[in-house]
Amino acid sequence: MKVVVRVGGSVVGSPLNAPMINRYVTLLKDWKNQGHKVVAVVGGGSLAREFIKVAAYLGLEEERRDWAAIHVSRLFAQLFVLSLGDSGCEAVPVSLDEAEACLKKEKIVVMGGLRPGMTTDTVAALIGERVKADLLVKGSNVDGIYTKDPRKYCDAKKVDKLRFKELVGLFDAKQHKAGINQIIDPEAVKILAKIRLRTIVVDGYDTANLVFAVEGRQVGTVIE
Ligand code: UTP
After folding, report:
1. What whole-number distance in Å separates Cα of residue 155 and Cα of residue 172?
2. Is the pLDDT of residue 98 over 90?
3. Which helix H or strand E contains 7, and what residues bound it?
4. Residue with the nearest Cα to atom 5 of ligand 1?
5. Domains in the chain and their CATH numbers?
6. How far is the centre of ligand 1, averaged over its atoms, from the C-alpha of 7 (Å)?
């Protein structure tokens, strides 16, 4: 199976969590050994947001602030690359072409941000489109998508399965917007819906959930 895994910067890097990074590195190697082709896209977490704030304080315009955040996510990705050694690419790819070329060499690809004006969710969707992935799994800091913001509403219910169309509907419903947008970027959803890439959002603090997702067991929220 060709899997894109979106590793939450909030999960591995807010604050930087060495044992968690190690668990993800092990997971990626296990998948490769089982014959899967793997691309991981790591987010920049709270450190990226701090860098954006500092860049803003320094008077940098939006594009440069974005670059600061992109470099943070690439630094996280670099840690993965170093730790993967021979199983991974030589470096963090900075374009879809580089990522695709590395995957063709049967190596695990780990990347961060690509260019200003997007998030790593969109990077994951774009690389998923490019390599014709079978599955996108997002290891998030929430365990799935809820009918309402669960931090605000105690009657919020987790949704097991969702159609892309329904998700777009949830984005449009203003009262849900803020919470849902943090779970998965609407720009990424547009691409995922277009290419119909099965996407599963799981609690990323336990890597067993990502294993379940790849094994086809019900976990988190499945969007298709
Ligand atoms: P992230 O994707 O790193 O943050 O984008 P996130 O959505 O909070 O995900 P996690 O929790 O860290 O995994 C953070 C910011 O970095 C810039 C944008 O400003 C984005 O809002 N960014 C990131 C880019 O401009 N381009 C990219 O390709 C990636």
Report:
1. 20
2. yes
3. strand 2-7
4. 119
5. 2-223 (3.40.1160.10)
6. 12
